[in-house]
Amino acid sequence: DAAVLIEGTRIAWVGPAASAPVPHTAPAHLRERTTGGRENGYSPHPRPSDVLSRTNGAAALEREEVAVVDAAGRAVIPGFVDSHTHLVFGGDRADEFAARMAGQPYAAGGIRTTVAATRAAGDDQLRRRLARLVAELHAQGTTTFEIKTGYGLTVHDEARLARLAAEVTSEVTFLGAHVVPAEYADARDEYVDLVAGPMLAACAPHAKWVDVFCETGAFTADESRQVLEAGMARGLVPRVHGNQLGPGEGVRLAVSLGAASVDHCTYLGDDDVAGLAGSDTVATLLPGVEFSTRHPYPDARRLIDAGVTVALASDCNPGTSFTSSMPLMIALGVREMGMTVSEAVWAATAGGAAALRRDDIGRLAPGTRADLVVLDAPSRTHLAYRPGVPLVHAVYKDGARL
Ligand code: NIG
Ligand code: FE
User: Are the beta carbons of 266 and 299 closer than 8 angstroms?
Assistant: First the structure.
């Protein structure tokens, strides 16, 4: 029995439908029903729960120019905020996945396969794949997403990926330090200098964030620090891939630099958890990776109980998590990581917003962006209760239906 009032691109009011500041019935020509053939089929007691959308400000209210969308008892939640993806790449690694499921372990070096395919792909080819993935995210209720570079690993290719990413999101992350490319295998110091120097300079104009893969097989803590500090000197804010494949220094490094987020957090010591709890760094958990690599899931319960801010994200990438489904992350968070439904939905919305240091998304409250998802379900609980079922009925971004 709730209603949301939208003015232009922002939420103006949220509350019980009965006390909405505009009538929740409107002239017939302004009524826009979203209900389809399945309406109310899931609900024992269907009651109107409305999304009220008004486009012309106060004057429209006086003239009653209010478009009313009757959600017919469906739950309405904030659009998902996917704060960690690698959406710009060429090729795929289905064969590597199949081999892994047959017993091969995952290693960071697999990234080089995607680097080769990405370098070989033209801009338009990458753009078309990216557009398909963005449509896939939107269709599943994601209204804000971050994208990392990291499959180019030359000055030219990293700048190209940053530019393509910036065409579809304002949340672009420079990840030149994803892995040492094959041609620098015997000269890793030179590669780190390239990343922290000319590559960063070429990418920084398109990016907001700088990230490193601080892990055995990728970059050491010292190398990671060099790249992150160079990025910070150029005004980028640090984030870190850490503690994914084993215990390591990623979390400590992230906390010491005041990173916005440290992502993966699969293998944590008590000192890591305590460090995160005493910091503003969000722990972003990416259970699609554990699902696709058969590593143990990160312990969200331990982090939340220690007072750490936890986000859930897809890590959509061709190597370790080729899924863009935030509902799947919620289901895994609840079923495998000790989260309550409320905590998991919060982590996939407000938590993602915190990881991107955004206060205009991730919540339904007056003044925030009108980014919302109408679920084909009477409550958000169904996101975890009905795993694998497409429950997204409608998605609104900045007040407009996608
Ligand atoms: O987040 N951890 C590093 N990067 C990706 C994996 C990328 C790949 O294997 O292509 C991740 O899991
Ligand atoms: Fe990642």
Answer: no
Number of alpha carbons in the 13 Å side-chain half-sphere of residue 251: 28
Q: ipTM of the predicted structure?
A: 0.95
Q: How far is the CA of 7 from the centre of ligand 2 (A)?
A: 36
Supply 333's token pair: 């968070």
Low-confidence residues of the chain: pLDDT under 50 = 33-49, 54-57
Q: What is the value of pTM for the model shown?
A: 0.92
> First and final CA of the chain: distance in angstroms?
24
Phi, psi of 346 (to 5 degrees): -60, -45
CA of 241 to the centre of ligand 2 (A): 7
- The per-residue pLDDT for 21 is 84
- The CATH number of the domain holding residue 345 is 3.20.20.140
pLDDT in tens, 101-117: 999 998 888 999 999 99
Enumerate residues with CB within 5 Å of ligand 2 (an ion): 315
The residue to mutate among 89, 161, 178, having the most atoms of ligand 1 within 8 angstroms of its beta carbon, is 178
> Which single residue is written with the structure tokens 């030179």?
190
Q: Which residues constitute the domain of residue 56? A: 2-74+374-401
Task: Report the number of distinct structural domains present in the chain.
Answer: 2
